Each structure stands twice: as structure tokens, then as C-alpha cells.
């Protein structure tokens, strides 16, 4: 695999290890686009702001495939992560190959404590940076695909690790095990909704009726400008996901959609509610498909 700059390369590029996961395109949408089976740099940055976008994409990329001319990032350039998306939500970056490159988030609570939702790659350097923010109480896993570093992060931060019983084999040493399909309170202002479908133990977390951490259950598809499900990458049951959405959708209220994979967006709560009901109606008519990552509509 290509890990050094191609001959004659004079600017940023994407190397051959790219898995086409979409993370870089989320962070630098005007500079990186989807190509044939991987991302491609479509133009070089024109100013410092765009250069920072590419740096963020490079440090979020789980295969470290986004590279500057010369092939190596300058260690003297400040790391932009964790990156503020909203006053109380930070994007972790530093996505992990062990979670399929999923995004993870830090959620600030009114008390000044923090929660981690899904996990970035584990490192002591990142842990020290997070500890500077304040005390962490919980590491909330949305499902099995994102569980790889859960125990490491919970132990390092002195936090409780949460997972649903449907995916408990992925984190058998979890401190808190969610059960059944009824919603439950994780903490004041934070509610969990079991949503079996993508996996048997998938859940989503709603914080303050503002933030929805949806895992891989649904995401914002930039190409469609709408909320979408990954019909072609549903490990458990698309029919079960339809049932879950029908059971849950009327209770969901949020403004920010923050998935593990796929686009993020903010819309008025009423508009999110309307689109979620439309999504539930669409998914009701879906049937199982063979797993096909190339069919994903980002």
C-alpha cells in the first residue's frame, strides 16, 4: 500500500489505504470528494481555513490516508481535536480502524462533567487532553461495531461503560447493561432509546432534546439532503429497524443529528421530527439486501 507521496506529488493527496469511509469528506467537503472506491483531493487549499480542514480530515482518517506533500504531517501544527460542533458537543476525531472509522463525540453536561459517545482510537495523549476538560462520568456505546476501545476509555477516564444486552458480547465487562426496548434515563437530560435493526443491540442517545447520537441507525445523507438508513449495511434486520423506528419516532425530539457514520446536520426540531416520520415510513417498505458498502448513499 502507498504510504509515501507519489512521484511528482506537490500537494495534499489520498493514499491507497483509503477505505472510502466518508469521514474526510465530512470535514473538508469542498476539497475532498468521492472517487472510484476511495476519496480524492479535488483541489488544494486556498487559505489557512481550508488548510485546517484538510488537517482535521487527516487526523480523523482512521487509515491516515490524507497526506500533505512529502507524505508526513508536521507535528508542530496544532491538533484541532476535539473540535467544537456546538457549545456542548465536541467531535473527537482520531477515528479508529477497530471501529470501522466511526466518529465519536464528547458531551458536556450542565454540571460540568462529560460523557463520551462511542470512542476514538485509544491513546494516552488523547486521554490527557480530555482530562483537561473535566471529569468524565460515562462512556456510552451505541452498538457493537463501536465497542472496541470502550473498556480502555472507561477505565482510563474513571467512567462507567454502557451497552445494550443485544450487543453485550462485544463489551461483556460493561458496567451498565441496557435491556429491552423501552427508553431509559442514563442521566439527567440524557435518555437512551433501544433501536434494534443495524445490530441487535443498537441504541441512540438523546441529550437535552437537542442532540441525537444515532450510532449507525440513521444519518444525514448529503447527496440526498435527507435522513437515511444504511439499508445495504444492516447486520441484523432492516425489518426490525422499521419496527424500532415506528415504535420510537413519535418520542424523538432533537435538533442535531450526530451519527457514527455519515453526515451530521442541525435543523429545527420540528423539521427533524417531520423528516424522521418520513424516514420511518420509507424504511417500512424496505426489504433485506446483501451487504454492499458501495451502495451507501453518503
UniProtKB/TrEMBL annotation:
Keyword Hydrolase belongs to the record: yes
GO molecular function ontology, one term from the record: hydrolase activity
Domain of life: Bacteria
Keywords of this entry: Hydrolase
Pfam family, one: Lactamase_B
The keyword Lyase appears for this protein: no
Protein name: MBL fold metallo-hydrolase
Ranges of residues in domain Metallo-beta-lactamase: 101-261
Gene3D superfamilies the UniProt entry points to: Ribonuclease Z/Hydroxyacylglutathione hydrolase-like (3.60.15.10)
UniProt xrefs under CDD domains: YmaE-like_MBL-fold (cd07727)
InterPro entries: Metallo-B-lactamas, RibonucZ/Hydroxyglut_hydro
Amino acid at each position: 500500500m502507498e504510504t509515501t507521496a507519489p512521484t511528482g506529488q506537490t500537494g495534499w493527496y489520498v493514499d491507497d489505504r483509503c477505505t472510502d469511509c466518508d469521514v474526510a469528506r465530512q470535514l473538508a467537503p469542498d476539497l475532498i470528494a468521492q472517487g472510484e472506491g476511495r476519496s480524492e483531493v479535488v483541489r488544494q487549499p486556498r487559505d489557512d481555513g481550508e488548510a485546517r480542514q484538510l488537517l482535521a480530515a487527516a487526523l480523523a482518517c482512521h487509515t491516515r490516508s490524507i497526506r500533505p506533500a512529502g507524505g508526513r504531517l508536521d507535528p508542530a501544527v496544532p491538533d484541532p481535536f476535539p473540535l467544537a460542533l456546538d457549545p456542548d458537543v465536541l467531535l473527537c476525531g482520531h477515528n479508529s480502524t477497530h471501529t470501522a472509522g466511526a466518529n465519536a463525540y464528547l458531551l458536556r453536561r450542565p454540571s460540568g462533567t462529560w460523557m463520551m459517545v462511542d470512542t476514538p482510537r485509544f491513546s494516552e495523549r488523547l486521554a490527557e487532553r480530555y482530562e483537561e476538560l473535566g471529569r468524565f462520568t460515562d462512556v456510552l456505546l451505541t452498538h457493537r461495531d463501536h465497542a472496541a476501545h470502550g473498556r480502555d476509555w472507561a477505565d482510563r477516564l474513571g467512567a462507567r461503560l454502557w451497552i445494550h444486552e443485544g450487543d453485550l458480547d462485544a463489551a461483556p465487562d460493561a458496567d451498565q447493561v441496557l435491556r429491552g426496548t423501552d427508553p431509559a434515563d442514563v442521566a439527567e437530560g440524557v435518555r437512551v432509546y433501544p433501536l434494534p435493526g443495524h445490530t441487535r443491540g443498537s441504541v441512540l442517545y438523546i441529550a437535552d432534546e437537542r442532540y441525537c447520537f444515532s450510532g449507525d441507525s440513521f444519518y444525514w445523507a448529503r447527496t440526498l439532503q435527507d435522513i437515511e438508513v444504511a439499508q445495504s449495511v444492516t447486520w441484523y434486520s432492516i425489518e426490525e429497524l422499521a419496527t424500532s423506528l415506528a415504535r420510537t419516532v413519535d418520542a424523538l425530539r432533537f435538533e442535531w443529528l450526530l451519527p457514527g457514520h455519515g453526515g451530521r446536520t442541525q435543523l429545527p426540531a420540528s423539521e427533524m421530527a417531520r423528516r424522521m416520520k418520513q424516514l420511518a415510513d420509507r424504511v417500512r417498505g424496505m426489504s433485506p439486501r446483501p451487504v454492499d458498502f458501495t451502495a451507501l448513499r453518503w
